User: What shape does this take?
Amino acid sequence: MNGKKRILSGMRPTGALHMGNYLGALANWVTLQDQYDCFFFVADWHALTSDYESPERMGDYVHEILLDWLSAGLDPEKSTLFIQSRIPEHAELFLILSMITPVPWLERNPTYKDQIVQLQNKDLSTFGFLGYPVLQAADIIMYKAHGVPVGVDQVPHVEITREIARRFNFLYGRVFPEPDAILTQTPKILGLDRRKMSKSYDNAIYLSDDEETLQKKVMQMVTDPQRMRRSDPGNPEVCNVYEFHKLYTEANITQQIDRQCRSAEIGCVECKKTMAKNLIPALSPIFERRRYYQAHPKMVEEIIDSGSRNARDVARQTMREVRDAIQITY
Assistant: This one.
């Protein structure tokens, strides 16, 4: 483990990643590579918990998310990148943990309740959907991760994992550390129309967008809805373009834009153009890496093959310990 503490996290392959995914998680993963022994996985089995009726695009989504990761700066020399379904030990540990996990722990999961309400167009009355926190726990403790980088709203997920690990250790002897939540700050970034950035709303800026597409999308962004005319004073606090300025424009210019917007000295079109001039160069390394990996598909395959082999070596060792603990070694 090269002396570093280990962390693990994953993403479901449900489509191309957008700026919300990047700023909410992926950019932080890139930073954490220099501090931790990192394991990052494509959670394709998790995607089936809600999209089991339409798995035909899964392969494309897995490929896209891997391109997005590498383009964003995840380095296979620093992080182990792998695909969940290539490690069958995850399914075995999930089965074993499901034997000891009380159902009320799963039913009280706030995400479970929220998703039932939000995804009423899907039949989620399956064991897989109810039990996905157990699979999530298996994913994490399989690698004896010390931490899981999450936003505040995801802390309950890590707490369920801690409870499951604690219960296993109580019943069979200490095998697993209890992982901590590594809290990450998530910038307030909305979609082009000021709703939550989402592919389902068709309002996202994707990491796979090129410079020309990005320029067009910036110019489409909704600003202060109360500012109807160029001469109307604006309110940067409710403007999504200004949120991007705070991330990608120099602080002194951002402060100047704040003053000029409030006094109507600057119009929204000019403000967007200034933001785009700063955003596009900031994302250009992502564009360049993506073009490189798209031109070398075999390299991407080799990276994932190698990462999946490394992950499975760790998983096999963990499962030997688990089988010894529960005395299934005959």
